[in-house]
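Predict the 3D structure for this chain.
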Amino acid sequence: MAMTVLPVEYFYTTVDDKPCRAFELLARLAAEDINLLAFSAIPFGQDHVELTIFPASGTNLQAFITRQGLTATGPQHALLVQGDDHLGALAKIHKSLCDAGVQVYASSGVTDGRGHYGYVIYVKEADHVAAMGALSNLGG
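Done. Predicted structure below.
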């Protein structure tokens, strides 16, 4: 697998920190045939959780949000990088971004245990086009 870099949209919402809240939202998304590219849940304050949703289609998610009467912020932009896992893969990505003057302010990655990885990179909204350009030449 060659490395691919996709510009992706994400939306975030905050829910009460109660059992099953993420499950409930994920189940409703699945019932509405909304495909997710990535998802995260992190503590937010004392009694809340911030859910970050990366839909395959931002338009479909926005329609879902409206139908459900939810409040969400977005779309924001990030990069989804997928490629062959090897020593220094993430360092190579960060070097390209650094050379382009793009600051990464958050990221999250995982390997699949079979030699590939996925990596979500958050950059300042004004920098997402430059970040995409910086990584478009890496390809492999």
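The mean pLDDT is 92.
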